[in-house]
Structures are given as structure tokens and as C-alpha cells.
Amino acid sequence: MAQLLRAATWGLFPSRSYCSQKAKGELCRDFVEALKAVVGGSHVSTATAVREQHGRDESMHRGSGSRCQPPDAVVWPQNVEQVSRVAALCYSQGVPIIPFGTGTGLEGGVCAVQGGVCINLTQMDRILALNLEDFSVVVEPGVTRKALNTHLRDSGLWFPVDPGADASLCGMAATAASGTNAVRYGTMRDNVLNLEVVLPDGRLLHTAGPGRHFRKSAAGYNLTGLFVGSEGTLGLITATTLRLHPAPEATVAATCAFPSVQAAVDSTVHILQAAVPVARIEFLDEVMMDACNRYSKLNCSVAPTLFLEFHGSQQALEEQLQRTEEIVQQNGASDFSWAKEAEERSKLWAARHNAWYAALALRPGCKGYATDVCVPISRLPEIVVQTKEDLNASGLTGTIVGHVGDGNFHCVLLVNPDDAEEVGRVKAFAEQLSRRALALHGTCTGEHGIGLGKRQLLQEEVGAVGVETMRQLKAVLDPRGLMNPGKVL
Q: How far apart are CA 383 and CA 44, in angstroms?
């Protein structure tokens, strides 16, 4: 298939290399015309504004320079065949390929450090198959989390992985996304059943076999698991088969404030140890609560706070609420607020999802630097308390917020990007936090990924043999090193 794709592509232009004439910031005209022949002239852009938009995500990571590094061209394929032909074209000419979804990443994953072609997959936005009886769905890259759940609204099913941003589902698979519901429903690694992937040379791979959507398998290597979290460095995900879950019969949310960070995080551990089947348990420090009150017009106590949510039958919820209330009261919780109506719950979780923007509003004109770590639950109180002390002593403006139910939390630091000394202190703080997590047998990233920002930390986490094994896998699938170069490894 790859040979046929390359042959079809090469027929669009002479056999000489179209990158040989590449000027700085530009691909040669014939190569751009070849791209247009594949996807149509209106679906290719070399405009500066478009390229710069596609060369950055929500992070401050910008590659080797201080400014974002845009791709040389952006293309919008309409189907998997066009993706395969564009990939084969780029592969034959040695042009880097950068996949692009909604641009909501936080580790510089879409920065075009070597130029190349950005493949924006958002116009492939079909729900290809919905298997209600099998609890599965197949979606293209342009389908976002909210769009899928809107489509499922009357089906009795839903997709619970919720990173906050309305990210594309294939992008969430590529970054191994997680979120507020992970404590009960797992992360993307637990909810992806199959992937359709265009490999760098244009070949098409179905990681679990074409059309398959089984729940378990002992058939060979776990190719699906290999591509989940690969951050666009091994291929382009053009469809993902996802596991769906029954929508809960009843839902109740709650907030409770605590006298200290220690008390709030201790309560989290105790709730989990008591086997209370909490669906969400989120921690916000007092700085974050103050920001959310202002930004989202809440009236919560300015104190370390837990946001909780419970799913199940009415009878089961009553038991869960009673047990949780007993546990948090033993840790000094106050200001309970239960939200049983959908509108109340929506307002509460909207405030949590807008925490990033609430934090940015604490210091107008500055940028946000977000980092995350994840540790074993037993070490969570230790690292969160120490991080809070470090943050208070640093003189930096920042907040702590996290999915503490699975040991994962974030620091959002506000920084003036034009102040080199402050930027340096922020990066040093983030590295110190990651190394503390590693020392506690955790990971340097629970859900943001490696991207540009944590490549050295990945080496420290998995060791020399682990990194070398990853490099070998990368070399087999992408021998020319064209897929999202400069990321992860």
C-alpha cells in the first residue's frame, strides 16, 4: 500500500526533491502545489498568521527560541486517504509532519521545531460508528469530547474522560489525556479500544485490527497502548474506537472547605481507603478558590477545598454521602454545600474547568506556566503540603489544583514572559516539583505529556534502557525522524 501511495504522490511532480529549494520559513512552490493537488487549494495555507496559530498550544514552550516556531505550511485533509497521501508526500521528500487537533496542549507538542507541514485534522469530524449494545463508538479526529456527549445525550451512554478543555478525542488519545472523572472511569489509556493510524510513510494501521472493538485481548503486542500517549511522534491518529459507559441514574456534587492543605488531602486518601466509589474528587488551594470565586462568580470559602461528585442510584448516593461526610468532618471540614440539581452541578464544574482562566486573571498580562505530576496515593499529602510550602516561599504567584483522587495535581504559575529571571525561577520550581515526584516513586507528568518541556525528566524517570527502547521503537516506525520531531525524545 505504501508503495502505491508513494507512486500516486510522486506522479504529481517531478522526481527531484522539492525540499532542496526550501528557503527559510517557506516550502518551495512545487511542493506546496503538490499538497494542493492532494487536498485542494483551499485546504492548504502558507499565510503567516495561520502558520503561527498552528505553531503553538496553551503552553509557554517555544522550542529553541523565545517565539513560537510555526510550520512552513498547514493542510486540512478531508479523509484518511488524503492524510495517507500527504504523509507519503512528506515522507518521500523528508518534510517533518506535525499533527494538530484543537491546540489545547500544555507541553509545546505542536511547536514546529524543524518547520515542515502541520496536518490539521479537525475537518474530519464524523462519528463513524456507534455500537450501543457493545458500549463503543468510532470517531474521527475532529470530534471533540463535548460533541460526542451531545450526540450520545439520548442513548443512555456517555464518554466520561474529561480533561476540562473541549479537546479532540483523537488528540486526547495521542496525549493519553485524563481529567476529573479518572478516579472512577480511568484515563484514555483505559478507554481506547482501537486506533486507525497513518504511519509516517502513508501506510494505514489498525492497532487492534480493522473494525474490532473488544474489551480484552491477549493477542500479541499491545499496539493500541503504544500509540496512546505517543504525542504524534509515531503516526497520525485518524480514528479512535472508544469505550462508552452507562450514564449514571443520579448524580450529586459537593464542596467542602478545610482548615489546611494537609486536612484536605488527608481526607482524599481516607475517602479512597474507605472504598467510597467517588466519581470525581478535585482539590483547589485557597488561592485557586479565591480566583474561581472572582472569575466564575462563586461564593465559596477562600480555603483549601475539595470538589466531589458521586454517581449511582439514589440509595447508593445516600450511603456514599453519609460516609464521605463522616470522613471529612473528622479532618475538620466545614462549609458543606451539596449540589443535587443539574444547574447547580454545572455551575460548580464549569468553575473548576475554568480554573486555568481564573488563574490567569490573577495577574493580567502575564502568561500561565502549568505543570503536573502524579504520585502514589499514600505519598500525596506529603508532596502537596511540601509544594504549597515551596510555592509560598518562592515569591511566585501560583495555585495548586488537581485530580487528587488518582494522585495527580497541577501547579499553575503566573509569569511575565519578558522577565528572564522570573521565567528562570518558574522553570526551576517546575523541575524541582517533578524531581520530588520522581523521588516519591511517581511520574513527572500525570496527563500533560512530555512534549518539549520534560524530555530530560523522562530520561530520569524511565532510565537509560527505557529511553533507548523508546528510541528503537521510534526508529522502526519513523526511521527518518519526521513525525513531530523534537518531542518526547
A: 47
Residue 191: closest CA among 207, 212, 213 = 213
List, as one string, the DSSP characters of 121-157: -TT---EEEEETTTTEEEE-TT-BHHHHHHHTTTTTE
Its pTM stands at 0.91
CA 146 to chain centre: 15
Q: How does pLDDT run across 160-176, given as a tens digit for each residue?
A: 999 888 899 999 999 99
Residue pair 285/302 in contact by the 8 Å Cβ criterion:
no
Q: Which residues contact 146 (CB under 8 A, 6 or more apart)?
A: 166
The residues, any chain, with a CB within 8 Å of residue 342's CB and separated by 6 or more, are: 251
- Could you tell me which of 237, 216, 215 has the C-alpha nearest to residue 226? 237
As a whole number of angstroms, the distance between CA 87 and CA 71 comes to 15
What pLDDT was estimated at residue 68? 65
First-residue to last-residue Cα distance in the chain:
29
Q: Which of 486, 435, 230, 453 is nearest to 444 (CA)?
A: 435
pLDDT in tens, 85-109: 999 999 999 999 999 988 877 788 8
Torsion-angle region of 295 (φ positive above 0: left; ψ -120 to 50: alpha; else: beta): alpha
β-bridge mates for residue 157, sequence order: 246
CA distance 119 to 28: 18
Cα dihedral 379→381→385→390 (10° resolution): 20
**What b/e string do you get for 262-296 counting C-beta neighbours within 10 Å, with b at 16 or more?**
bbbbbbbbbbbeeebebbbbbbbbbbbbbbbbebb
Q: Model confidence over 41-87: pLDDT tens digits?
A: 999 999 999 999 998 887 777 654 445 689 999 999 999 999 999 99
Nearest to 111 by CA among 485, 412, 414, 489: 485
Provide the phi-psi class of 350: left if phi over 0, else alpha when psi is between -120 and 50, else beta: alpha
Helix (H) or strand (E) holding 73: strand 73-75
